[in-house]
Fold this sequence. Notes:
This protein is an alpha+beta fold. Helix content is 47%, strand content 21%.
Amino acid sequence: xxxxxxxxxxxxxxxxxxxxxxxxxxxxxxxxxxxxxxxxxxxxxxxxxxxxxxxxxxxxxxxxxxxxxxxxxxxxxxxxxxxxxxxxxxxxxxxxxxxxxxxxxxxxxxxxxxxxxxxxxxxxxxxxxxxxxxxxxxxxxxxxxxxxxxxxxxxxxxxxxxxxxxxxxxxxxxxxxxxxxxxxxxxxxxx
Length: 191
């Protein structure tokens, strides 16, 4: 019931006249439903924006360093039917931030490929550092593929190659159909 309809009815009663019939309904008005829909869409957009921002530069990478961020990434992907194990050795806390982000993105993309494309049930991520050389090895028990059949059309592996090139490194892919994949990467980092 609108306030003006209420005021008109009250005025009519006060003047001795009969109040006009005003329908009373418990149904939410269309504008209320639209408002709730908009609020829900905004909430979803904010959640998505937070996820994107976190993915761009994970808070754990900024606060706790590369090793902690990689460990969190791996443990966050575990699910029923998917085991992701992370092993690390000698990772320096003083790698420059841009290189930490590049290493993080490399591992993130390789994990994504192992889970989404290879259908892996077990993924092992190993990272170690010796002076200015950073080693990454990601091994999965997924479908595997013929490395010669990959022509750089996949955005994921192309992004990995670009980051490896940025870090003046090299990448080897060992994969056999139905036997899984191992990707070994060696990049240069600065402290």
